[in-house]
Amino acid sequence: METDIYYVNFEKRNTDIATGPPLPSCNQYERIDPQTGPPLPRRYQDEGNAQQTRPPVPSRSQDEVKAQKCRGSRCLVLMTVCLGIICVLLLVGSSIAVAQYFMVAAERESLFKSNKNTVEEFNQTINRLQHNYTELMTEKDQLKNNFTSLSQKKLELESNVTSLSDELQKAYEKGYLWGWFFISNESKSWSDSRKYCRDQGADLVIIKSEEKQRYITSLVNERMSSERVWIGLTDIQQEGNMKWVDNSILNQGFWDTGEPNNERGNENCVELMPSYPVLNWNDLPCSIERKGICEK
Ligand SMILES: [Ca+2]
Ligand SMILES: [Ca+2]
């Protein structure tokens, strides 16, 4: 069975029985059976005469037109609302997009400035490093020149040291220099004093020139208050044949007046008496205790 759709006004159908239900408004329609029309009000159904007093079914074509108009109006309203919502969404989306654009632009500007500052700092650092590198290279060249100059001076000094060593050796051989001298701390016999010097890697002093004689005399006067000291001269091996401790013979002596006299035949070792300026040697017994002057 074909089913048609009708709409009825529920608010009116219970009150207007004689004339039938009025045409409904657009929002007051419901689905009804086209064969029986809209349902009867409850009071007609209860009295059992629903068939005799049933209100007439409204005109089918008029309702359809009305329903179509209502549907069109509803659709129009719905479309309008949808369009409005779409417009609002578009407006909101556009606003968000614009805001994001400005945010991105501001961020990009900030990044650009930051990068620009970073590049400037980097360039300044490069320039500073290049300046430092140039200065270091200059200092390196100066140091290199100084090193070359110092190397030349070192060679010159080494040459001078060699020359001075040769001159010192020659001067020593000529008797102008007499090495290192020191005086023993205790008074001992000539043999024990010599042993003391030899234990220190030295020996009793040998004097073969007047300059050295004057120098030793002056040294003993300064250090020992003119105390008499042993020197490295003796005739203990053969009386009258004075020899130095290196077994060299005596060529020039600086004897005090009347010396050596070998008094009592027992004076075989020689002392220096600094209270006399140059001629101050004397022979005396080797067992007498004196401090010795050592030469290294
Ligand atoms: Ca003697
Ligand atoms: Ca004597």
Characterise the protein shown here.
- The chain has 296 residues and is an alpha+beta fold.
- The chain has three domains: 49 residues, no CATH class; 96 residues; 115 residues, Roll (Mannose-Binding Protein A, Chain A).
- It contains six helices and seven strands.
- The site of one calcium ion has 8 residues, from β6.
Number of domains: 3
CATH class of the largest domain: Alpha Beta
The helix content is: 40-55%
Radius of gyration: 72 Å
Order of helices and strands: HHHHEHEHEEEEE
Largest sheet properties: 7 strands, mixed
Mean pLDDT: 82
Uncertain segments are: 1-20
- Main structural class: alpha+beta
- CATH homologous superfamily of the largest domain, by name? Mannose-Binding Protein A, subunit A
Oligomer classification: single chain
Number of helices: 6
The CATH architecture designation of the largest domain is: Roll
Amino-to-carboxy terminus distance: 154 Å
Tell me, briefly, the overall form.
rod-shaped
Instruction: Using the coordinates shown, work out and report the CATH topology of the largest domain.
Output: Mannose-Binding Protein A, Chain A
Distinct small molecules bound, one entry per kind: calcium ion
Tally of DSSP β-strands? 7
